Amino acid sequence: MNQKRSSELVRAVQLSLESKYTSQLIKSVSGDTAQMSSACAHQSQIVMEPITTRKVFVIYTGGTIAMLENDEGNLAPVSKEVLTDWLFRHLLLYEKRPNETEEQARERLTVEDGWLLLHQKAVDNYNKDFKVLYQIESLDPPIDSSNMTPSQWFEIGDKILAAKDDYDGFVILHGTDTMAYTSSALSFILWDLKKPVILTGSQTPLFYPRSNAEDNFIGALLMASCYSKNQFLQQVMIYDDTKLYQGNRVCKYDCDSFSVYDSPNAEPLARLETRIKVRECKPISEPKELRVRASISGFPDVRLLKVFPGIKAEYVTSILNGAHGLILETFGSGNAPDDPHLIAALKDADERGVVILNCTQVYKGTVLPIYDVSSELREAVVSGYDITPEAALAKMVWTLRTFPDQKTRKAVLEASICGETSAPPAKLIFV
């Protein structure tokens, strides 16, 4: 084969690697490749290094990230079709080559079977031999996160479990108002998944020129794909404003800022700034084995009670009547008034089978058995340690729905199942 023909073929292979579509571009080389010399064959093998493809399943639930104004002038979720069309046009903005027409770029960047390509310029920051594909599925219809319910937590969890062998990671587009509840719930529903599940949203829509949506979505896709083999990140997480948080350790603390979430009792897992920095995983103590029997039931009636100065036993009783579980938000390190009528109401509920989990109403802190005023309270309630109220409610719903007996429920709530508290960790063994 002459030198010109050899250069032609090598250039075609280089282009194929650049565009990540080898088969299409190899076919574009004219001539009979059967005459290719063994030297040229060896040269092409050197050039054609393997490309690692990572696949991500995106579940679009709704939320501000994909909202537009409706006819009444109010923000409402758009359809999956509107969202995917915008995402492809955004890809064109960054990946179209200077010498290409838009039609040529669309043809090159279009992937079959509904797959979308993550911006290669973003992926190259991690590894130039990676490409990331993702598919989008939507709740029908997509919703404002204020309308999210526990049944939908389990619906989303079921979708992920059904697809777990087909994807490297998962991204959930979700409104920020209740995202911490959903991420906490999914951490328990998917406690043994061992793949990254990242929830993200935004304060302003993708379609607006000044928005945090693009970075949040691209950052979540990047971490769910390129870092999917990092065992430390094989859990449910939230990505917000360049930070990746443990999903059951966050609270929404600011609705006027692009930095929406904080993790009061745990550091971010990673930071995506000019460089991506993943925090080193500190070894945890060996978890004890907790042998449990599961029996999935209907959705429990879980209620919240925030203790306040002057609270009356009658008010507490009215909250407890008909409840299956109660999240008790107490003062400071787990304290409540030592009113005998109030304590009696809580003990009576405990004897009726109502499970009560004590968590502090303070933004940052831990329930500790150190004050005399709360000594009798501890007889009726389970300590939540430093669990957030969002994670406490989600864990209670999951626990009551999954485990049938009172003793097991209390043991599960008191332990750290997937890092949601600083309590002693436990590994569930289903019997």
UniProtKB/TrEMBL annotation:
Residues 55-279 form the L-asparaginase N-terminal domain. Substrate binds at S145, T176, D177. It is an enzyme of class 3 (hydrolase). PANTHER family: 60 KDA LYSOPHOSPHOLIPASE, L-ASPARAGINASE. It comes from Clupea harengus. The gene is LOC116225155. One of its GO terms (biological process) is asparagine metabolic process. Pfam families: Asparaginase, Asparaginase_C. The active site is at T64, T176. CDD domains: L-asparaginase_I. This is asparaginase. SMART domains: Asparaginase (SM00870). Residues 301-411 form the Asparaginase/glutaminase C-terminal domain. GO terms for molecular function: asparaginase activity. Its EC number is 3.5.1.1.
